[in-house]
Request: fold
Amino acid sequence: MKKNIAASVSVIFFLFLFFGANPAQAEVEHKILFKKVLEFSDDSEDFFFKYPDNPYNRQMQVDCKGNIYILDANRILKFDSSGRFIKNLMSHGQGPGEVTRLRNFILRNDKIYIYNHYPDKIIIKDKKGALVKEFRTTESLDKFFAVYAKNYYSFNEELLDLTINYAKIIDVDWYLIRVSSKGKIETVKDCKLPIKSFIVKKGRNISEIRIAKILVAQLKDKTFFVTHSTEYEVKLLDIKKKKVVKTFKRDYQRQEPPPEVAKKLNIQAFGFLGKVYRRPPQKYLNDIQQLLVHGDNLWVATSTVDEKKGVLIDIFNKDCEFSGSFYLKLSDRLGYLDYFSFHAYIFDSFLYTIESDKDDNPRVVKYEIITAE
Reply:
């Protein structure tokens, strides 16, 4: 296993914290230190990463002992707090505890809750990978994200009207759903999230490119920050109450995609009934790229990226009030374009990232977050 544990502070930011979008407001100096404490990549003697940085299916979580769990294709790879590879917790197949299309997982207390699509089932394992229980769900779970009070929660896409044909950008309604321990699904019609998508539909044949996406970050056991718009808006969701309890936003200067990013967006296409459909050009990037929770604060990774400074992070306090911003630049290996697909996870006072080395090999990096008054 290749590791590099740094003994000194590797990145120090002397950043300015500002309020709102009004330049006339006073700037307040804000200091954040990031100390790199761990870095590891794959090793031929232990394991190889496949696609841990897949932008469509990235997931990394950490338990209270510092063990790191990474979703990598149909595997959940477990590492100890020093980056030593422990094992792959999953097996491929259709038997008990096995997966064919592993979508995502939730780490909660001493259990791992895994959702597999086709067959649709929730698998519960202990942290050593031993099967505790599994059960089928009566429907697919499009965005499995929470476990609370013996219920399971997802966001699901509403079926489209099959009588109308079109090829255009529309808002597709997604709803909060609650899954019982027997796999029965309840759709919460009062909790609707419209998602902007490019849809091509002819009869019962449908293809889709999602322009916006649902991003979720857990604040407490039953409360989650959620965003689902191309524009700057965040909602606080209480899954016990089964409703959004607060919506907040701020004035934000929307960003046009730089040429390199626009090129990647514009080549997105799919074949459909003998014809190729391309995603319509996007004038602005999605304002919010990622949600992270640090203590009681929400960190919003925006679409504002400075080649020298890194990505702009907005901070909201526990009352969902905007309290300032800072630029985050972690590594010289993270170039300008990397921040548009930046992936991170915060646990306790540590920031975990999946980065790439100069040869595009994925690496896991752990930083201690040190804030100063």
